[in-house]
Amino acid sequence: MREDTQNRRSPWAIAWAVLRGIGIAISSLVGLLVTLGAVAAAQGFLARERFANLKPELTIPHSGTFAADREGTPIELGIMGDSLAAGYGADDPASTPGVLLAEGLVEAGERPVTLTNVAEVGAESTALEAQLARLLSLSTPDVVVILIGANDVMHLKRLTDALWPLAATVRHLHSGGTEVVVATCPDLGTVRPFMPLLRFLAHWYSRVLATGQAIVTLRASGRTVSLADTLGAIFRRDPATMFSLHDHLHPSSRGYAEAARVILPSVRVAAGVPLPEDANVPHRVYQKGSRRPLAWLAFRASRRVGDRLVPVS
Predict the structure, then answer these.
(1) Crossing angle of the two packed helices 253-271 and 97-109, in degrees rounded to 10
(2) Pairing of strands 113-117, 143-147
(3) Domain boundaries of the chain, sorted by first residue
(4) What is the mean pLDDT of residues 144-153?
(5) Cα R_g (the chain), whole angstroms
(6) Which of the four pLDDT bands, split at 50, 70 and 90, describes residue 307?
(7) Of the ranges 61-70, 108-117, 231-240, which one carries the lowest mean pLDDT score?
(8) What's residue 32's pLDDT?
(9) Is 275 exposed, middle or buried (0-12, 13-18, 19+ CB in 10 A)?
(10) In 96-114, which positions are buried (b, 16+ CB within 10 angstroms) versus exposed (e)?
(11) Which pTM does this prediction carry?
(12) Residues 229, 286: contact at Cβ < 8 Å?
């Protein structure tokens, strides 16, 4: 009898039951997303609190002339960006990226190199405009290296707000005859102090930003090197030696040495002093893969960036 009653349920009752089931599923999904978002926000707040007490005075970006006794016109090298460009966490100035790149150019070009480093600890991409003005007031660079983006990820900046200052900076430098190498945002998913959910979100967002940085830099006639592709596996595999013991967030001296190693070939080519092994260094050092959603989001953001740029005469 009960079976007959169930078989005689009206289509409206069946439809209502289905809709109610869908509603419950959607409500559960929304609740899960809200919960995950709250957890991620809490983890993000705790992470920012943990790394808020950085001490910029520990790192003074090193500038100066290297191999001044050598003959020839010095190569003018500029460094812009955040704490990675400044070398925060390195054991000494000789272990910072700017110095390592300058020494690499001296060896390749067999002539002096004048380094001007205007990077700032804690800088976001919006700081590039002021850094550019300062750099050009101090130097007429032949090549500029930019390392930026990690703080934009840490502070959850919008993609467009992180990309348009970089695009404008590269465009301005190139219009003045300066070659530009952008080392795109590192994979922040390798930072072990981040809790698991935050680590996943940091990985995802930093990869989206890095892809967008590559797109806008190439459009502005710059070169890019992907720190995530070239170094991510090393930092993930050996965090004890690749990260600074000071905060386990910034690279150690060894980490900076690895970063300089992968950036230097593009800098040598940009400066016009390539070595034989640099013959095939491309404008873009980035692995092709299956990250289509990331590329799509970054491409959409980079298209919107174009509307905010003012042509440089």
Answers:
(1) 40
(2) unpaired
(3) 2-50, 60-306
(4) 94
(5) 24
(6) very low
(7) 231-240
(8) 39
(9) middle
(10) bbbbbbbbbbbebbebbbb
(11) 0.77
(12) yes
Amino acid in position 108: A
Per-residue tokens: 311: 């042509």
Cβ pair 171, 220 in contact under 8 A: yes
The tokens describing 261, both together, are 């190693």
Alpha helices in the chain (DSSP H): 2-7, 11-50, 83-86, 97-109, 128-138, 150-154, 159-175, 196-219, 227-237, 239-242, 253-271, 292-306
pLDDT score at 29: 46
Check if the beta carbon of residue 231 is closer than 8 Å to that of residue 259: yes
pLDDT (mean) for 257-271:
94
Cα–Cα distance measured from residue 186 to residue 232, given in angstroms and rounded to the nearest whole number: 7
The Cα–Cα gap between 100 and 87 comes to 10
pLDDT at 290: 47
Cα(104)–Cα(191) distance, integer angstroms: 28
The CATH-assigned architecture of domain 60-306 is: 3-Layer(aba) Sandwich (3.40)
Tens-digit pLDDT profile for residues 114-130: 999 999 998 999 999 99
Helix (H) / strand (E) containing 251: none
Residue 93 exposed, middle or buried by CB count within 10 Å (0-12, 13-18, 19+): middle
Nearest alpha carbon to residue 184 among 139, 217, 154: 217
- The rounded mean pLDDT for the chain is 78
Please state, in angstroms and rounded to a whole number, the distance separating the CA atoms of residues 233 and 238: 8
Instruction: Kindly give, in sequence order, each residue whose CB lies less than 8 Å from that of residue 172, ignoring residues fewer than 6 positions away.
Output: 132, 312
Q: Letter for the amino acid at 78?
A: G
* Cβ atoms of 76 and 116 closer than 8 Å: yes
Query: What percentage of the chain has pLDDT greater than the value 90?
Result: 41
Q: What is the mean pLDDT of residues 285-293?
A: 50
Instruction: Please tell me the predicted confidence (pLDDT) of residue 91.
Output: 84
Q: 170, exposed or middle or buried, with CB in 10 Å at 0-12, 13-18, 19+? A: buried
